[in-house]
């Protein structure tokens, strides 16, 4: 019997700072452009950004921040935030991105759970931290991510030491002796949005970030290259910024950051000014851009690919971008626990399809790139066929998937290493996965299951519907029945009947919502997804009372 022998290739430790070093060396003049918090457009090349990150690393050492420390950031997508990503991970500390839109109790829980020693914070969010400061006993100080002119007196009286980011950097040298790390050294931390129970921390390693960055660059994932001008709308605090703050510098693409300017006009203006060819966001943000384009008869000729995920992308959105704006929508699925999971890519068989058939495929959440094993199972754990019909629990496994939550004693996996995503989906014969629903959102009506996602997608195809949420609410006879909650487009007044008509064109009669309720504003989660929790509380007994 022969035994395997070792390969004779170099062995090397790794740190994510090497991604930025590579960008600085080989694409040093390629710019990171930010619509800044202070106002005005800020531009910096990767070489200069790397120098500043080295200054930051020296400043961190000056604050006695060491390897293994958790340090929070609460910031928009800006060049300074990017420096923090690389500088903190680069010295071996953990860059913990905080979502400013969370409720104060959640922020308190997350900062204390992570034991953040310092928080790097944009001027816009100083008050968010100040609100809960007396409940953060372990916090030693804040670093406000601005220059001296934009520091205000009230910041300095906040109750913990407050430092000015630019002043800290200004005192430091541009070189730093960066350490390299073992494969699973922690690099960054992101908490799930915690729609049920407390948020849970996902602790990414230097290697998982590297693996992820390499994979997202693939043509059939985000197709990244040095020719890109990529507008990163997805917040750097949402699911590790979908990995893009690592993968775009890795390929030497131009990175365009919207800062706090997330309205339709600002997004449109920066796409035009920076000739952006790619962008990414959740559907609710893309609706803002689409409305701005539609209402002002504008075009975005440089834009070729728009990556949308985080919740299901309505068919009407894919059609609008393709037909009216000549931009291809790439639908993706992922979660904080996996970062990017699947992406919808074009396969040869799709060239033969009619427009309508092709759009149906493009509505699916896509195929897993290498390194993500995926299966659907029934309640007993048996694998279900890839026939596009059978639906079951979506399970994933691989080096880019969480093993256990931060500080959890138990693994998050089953005995064979699979992670239950909490989503229910189908997989078709071409390998395209389609989310049927979040397990907890599926509507169970008299033993039949109705996909809330499907109904919502059809409803937003109505030209006068802005956004729609479908809920299973209590019903005397059927246990649960669907109820549709709708926000009308500005200046429109669609009738209930016209909305139900559109739904009945695509769905069986028993799947039609029992009623349509109009509301003025849809509750959204901190990451911009529809928040069904408050809707459930308000409308739980709606049909019982009716
Ligand atoms: P988060 O960790 O906050 O990004 O939430 C992850 C969850 O968002 C997933 O488990 C899905 O339920 C949902 N999700 C993400 N992308 C999609 C998508 N393209 N379609 C439907 N649901 C999605």
Write a compact overview of the structure shown.
By secondary structure, this protein is α/β, with parallel strands linked by helices. Among the domains are: 17-23 and 41-205, 3-Layer(aba) Sandwich (Rossmann fold), CATH 3.40.50.12780; 338-438, Luciferase, Domain 3 (Luciferase, domain 3); 443-545, 2-Layer Sandwich (GMP Synthetase, Chain A, domain 3), CATH 3.30.300. The strands form 5 sheets. Strands 2-1-11-10-12-13-14-15 form an 8-stranded mixed sheet.
Measured as a percent range, the helix fraction is 25-40%
Number of strands: 24
Number of helices: 17
Integer average pLDDT:
95
Cα Rg? 24 Å
CATH class of the domain at 17-23 and 41-205: Alpha Beta
Task: Kindly name the structural category.
Answer: alpha/beta
Strand-residue fraction? 15-25%
Low-confidence stretches: none
Work out the oligomeric state of the chains in this entry: single chain
Biggest beta sheet summary = 8 strands, mixed
Q: Going across the biggest sheet, name each strand in turn.
A: 2-1-11-10-12-13-14-15
Bound molecules: adenosine monophosphate
Provide a descriptive summary of the structure in words.
With 546 residues, this protein is α/β, with parallel strands linked by helices. Among the domains are: 17-23 and 41-205, Rossmann fold, CATH 3.40.50.12780; 338-438, Luciferase, domain 3, CATH 2.30.38.10; 443-545, GMP Synthetase, Chain A, domain 3. The chain is built from 17 helices and 24 strands. The strands form five sheets. It has an eight-stranded mixed β-sheet with strand order 2-1-11-10-12-13-14-15. A seven-stranded mixed β-sheet has the order 7-6-5-3-4-8-9, with helices on both faces. Strands 16-17-18-19 form a four-stranded antiparallel β-sheet. Helix 8 crosses helix 9. The protein is globular and about 70 Å long. The relative contact order is 0.08. The mean pLDDT is 95. The structure holds adenosine monophosphate (AMP). Adenosine monophosphate binds next to strand 14, strand 18 and strand 19.
């Amino acid at each position: 019997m022969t035994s395997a022998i070792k390969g004779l290739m170099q062995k090397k430790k790794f740190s994510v700072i090497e991604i930025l070093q590579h960008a600085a060396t080989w694409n040093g003049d390629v710019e990171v452009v930010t619509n800044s918090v202070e106002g005005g457009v800020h531009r910096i090349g990767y070489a200069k950004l790397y120098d500043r990150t080295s200054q930051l690393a020296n400043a961190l050492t000056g604050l006695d921040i060491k390897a293994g420390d958790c340090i929070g950031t609460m910031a928009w997508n800006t060049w300074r935030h990017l420096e923090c990503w690389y500088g903190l991970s680069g010295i071996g500390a953990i860059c913990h991105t905080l979502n400013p839109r969370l409720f104060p109790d959640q922020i308190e829980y997350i900062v204390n759970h992570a034991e953040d020693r310092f928080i790097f914070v944009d001027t816009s969010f100083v008050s968010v931290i100040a609100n809960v400061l007396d409940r953060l006993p372990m916090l030693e100080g804040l670093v406000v991510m601005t220059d001296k002119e934009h520091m205000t007196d009230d910041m300095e009286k906040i109750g913990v030491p407050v430092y000015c980011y630019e002043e800290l950097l200004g005192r430091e040298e541009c070189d730093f002796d960066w350490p390299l790390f073992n494969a699973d050294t922690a690099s960054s931390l992101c908490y799930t949005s915690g729609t049920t129970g407390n948020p849970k921390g996902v602790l990414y390693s230097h290697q998982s970030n590297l693996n992820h960055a390499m994979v997202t660059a693939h043509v059939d994932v985000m197709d990244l290259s040095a020719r890109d001008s990529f507008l990163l709308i997805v917040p750097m605090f949402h699911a590790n910024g979908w990995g893009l703050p690592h993968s775009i510098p890795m390929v030497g693409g131009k990175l365009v950051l919207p800062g706090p300017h997330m309205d339709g006009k600002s997004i449109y203006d920066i796409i035009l000014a920076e000739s952006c060819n790619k962008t990414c966001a959740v559907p609710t943000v893309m609706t803002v851009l689409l409305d701005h384009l539609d209402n002002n008869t504008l075009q975005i000729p440089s834009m070729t690919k728009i990556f949308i995920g985080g919740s299901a992308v309505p068919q009407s959105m894919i059609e609008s971008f393709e037909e009216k704006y000549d931009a291809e929508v790439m639908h993706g699925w992922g979660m904080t626990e996996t970062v990017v999971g699947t992406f919808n890519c074009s396969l040869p068989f799709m060239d033969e399809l009619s427009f309508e058939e092709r759009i149906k495929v493009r509505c699916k959440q896509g195929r897993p790139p290498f390194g993500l094993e995926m299966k659907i199972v029934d309640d007993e754990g048996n694998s279900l066929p890839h026939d596009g019909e059978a639906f079951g629990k979506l399970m994933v496994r691989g080096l880019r998937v969480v093993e256990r939550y931060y500080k959890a004693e138990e693994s998050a996996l089953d005995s064979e290493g699979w992670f239950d995503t909490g989503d229910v989906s189908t997989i078709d014969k071409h390998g395209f996965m389609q989310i049927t629903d979040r397990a907890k959102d599926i509507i169970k009506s008299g033993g039949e299951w109705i996909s809330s996602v499907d109904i919502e997608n059809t409803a937003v195809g109505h030209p006068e519907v802005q956004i729609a949420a479908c809920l299973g609410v209590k019903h005397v006879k059927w246990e649960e029945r669907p109820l549709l909650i709708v926000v009308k487009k500005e200046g429109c007044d669609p009738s209930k009947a016209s909305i139900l008509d559109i739904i009945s064109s695509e769905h069986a009669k028993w799947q039609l919502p029992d009623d349509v309720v109009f509301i003025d504003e849809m509750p959204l989660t901190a990451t911009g997804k529809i928040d069904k929790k408050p809707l459930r509380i308000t409308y739980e007994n709606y049909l019982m009372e009716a």
